[in-house]
Design goal:
It is a single chain. This protein has 7 helices and 7 strands. It is an alpha/beta fold. The chain has one domain: NAD(P)-binding Rossmann-like Domain (Rossmann fold, 3-Layer(aba) Sandwich). A 7-stranded parallel β-sheet has the order 3-2-1-4-5-6-7, sandwiched between helices. α1 crosses α7, α2 runs parallel beside α3 and α3 packs parallel to α5. It is globular and about 50 Å long.
């Protein structure tokens, strides 16, 4: 059956690949964006750090597609810096978008899911949450927090047949890696057992699985799509 799917940050990179995967499966897909809305989807402007914008985005999606049945919380940001050079604003702004922003969208989506007594929530974390990375203390902290958040909600929402899972991508071939120096990129690839970048479509495949009927008994899981980079963590 066609479902109402919302992908936050679905206008580019991993988020866009996820939106395309659900659309190809016949779902009614909406995406949030802050700039440059993609073609082919219901696109709603939303900064997840603003609670009013989050509520308005859900209202628009619900009016057009019905209550959100599958939420993919993907919107995020980086503000990399070594600890001694990292300002408090660098730290708190990343947590507000990557962690508190997910809290906002998941809380809003859960209203309809609780009424329907079903739903799928997939949260996009990162391999960095598991293994750490120099210059990304803020990003790693925000992405690690998502795992505890998701597992707590898996227990809380499970009795209403709502699953909550995490996908943790490794270094992925998107525009975000343009901030890396060639040396950093080479080092990270060398630390990955499969010796390559992930493709956005590979991450999207993992997300689609967790939202599929085959994953109905999977909740509280962390699924790495990282070529083995975070093994053992």
């Amino acid at each position: 059956m066609s479902r109402s799917v919302l992908v936050t940050g679905g206008n580019k990179g991993i988020g866009l690949a996820i939106a395309q995967a659900f659309a190809e499966a016949g779902d009614r897909v909406a995406v949030t964006y802050r700039s440059d809305p993609p073609e082919g989807f219901l696109s709603v402007r939303c900064d997840v750090s603003d609670p009013d914008q989050v509520d308005q985005a859900f209202t628009e999606v619900e009016q057009a597609h019905g209550p959100v049945e599958v939420l993919v919380a993907n919107a995020g940001m980086t503000r990399d810096q070594l600890l001694l050079r990292m300002s408090e604003q660098d730290f708190t702004s990343v947590l507000d978008t990557n962690l508190t922003g997910v809290f906002r969208v998941v809380k809003r989506a859960s209203r309809g899911m609780l009424r329907a007594r079903r739903g799928r929530i997939v949260i996009i974390s990162s391999a960095v949450a598991l293994r750490g990375e120099v210059g990304q203390a803020n990003y790693a902290a925000s992405k690690a927090g998502l795992i505890g958040f998701a597992r707590s909600l898996a227990r809380e929402l499970g009795p209403r047949s709502i699953t909550v899972n995490v996908v943790a991508p490794g270094l992925t071939d998107t525009g975000m890696i343009s901030a890396l120096t060639p040396e950093q990129r080479t080092k990270m690839i060398e630390e990955t057992p499969l010796r390559r970048l992930a493709q956005p479509e590979e991450v999207a495949g993992a997300v689609r699985f967790l939202a599929s009927p085959e994953a109905a008994f999977v909740t509280g899981a962390v699924l790495p799509v990282d070529g083995g980079a975070a093994m053992g963590h």
